[in-house]
Design goal:
4 helices, alpha+beta, 50s Ribosomal Protein L17, Chain: A, elongated, single chain
């Protein structure tokens, strides 16, 4: 049972997985769009959104937390996060990346996606409120009652008096 074990292993040990996701984050920040598999993109999305949230704060503590997340090319990646990407999403609360399904990889049929940062002019999706509409019972007008004449019932077997046949 995998209770309380969040995240995907991606068929790698922990150090390899951490290094791979860090390199993918570097590529995403530099290029703002990369193509990868669906599982990797879902894991990268968590890290990338966290990095943008820290870049938006732009405090000494948040910069030190960013240096823990970004392992290689720190100066280039962190400056781009702090100067370009962080201010772009200043008015947005979360949801900084988008995953677009592309298709399946040719060799092993793995689902591939493009993960990218949103542009500055895209509005945030607002939560839709469900409209509760009370359905009133349809008004049915009563049909006029027409009295039909009663049909005379056939006499019961007991009441029928048969005359005995005389022969």
């Amino acid at each position: 049972m995998r209770h309380r074990k969040a995240g995907r292993k991606l068929n790698r040990d922990s150090s390899h997985r951490e290094a791979m996701l860090c390199n993918m984050l570097n590529s995403l920040v530099k290029n703002e769009r990369i193509q990868t598999t669906f599982g990797r993109a879902k894991e990268l999305q968590k890290i990338a959104d966290k990095a943008v949230t820290l870049a938006k704060k732009n405090t000494t503590a948040s910069i030190s937390q960013l240096t823990k997340i970004v392992k290689s090319d720190r100066e280039e990646v962190i400056t781009k996060l702090l100067k370009e990407i962080g201010p772009r999403f200043a008015s947005r609360d979360g949801g900084y990346t988008r995953i677009i399904k592309v298709g399946f990889r040719r060799g092993d049929a793995a689902p591939t996606v493009i993960i990218e940062y949103l542009s500055a002019d895209e509005p945030a999706k607002k939560a839709k409120k469900k409209k509760t509409v009370k359905k009133e019972a349809p008004v049915v007008e009563a049909a006029p009652v027409v009295e039909t004449p009663a049909v005379e019932e056939a006499p019961k077997a007991e009441e029928v008096k048969e005359e005995p046949k005389s022969e």
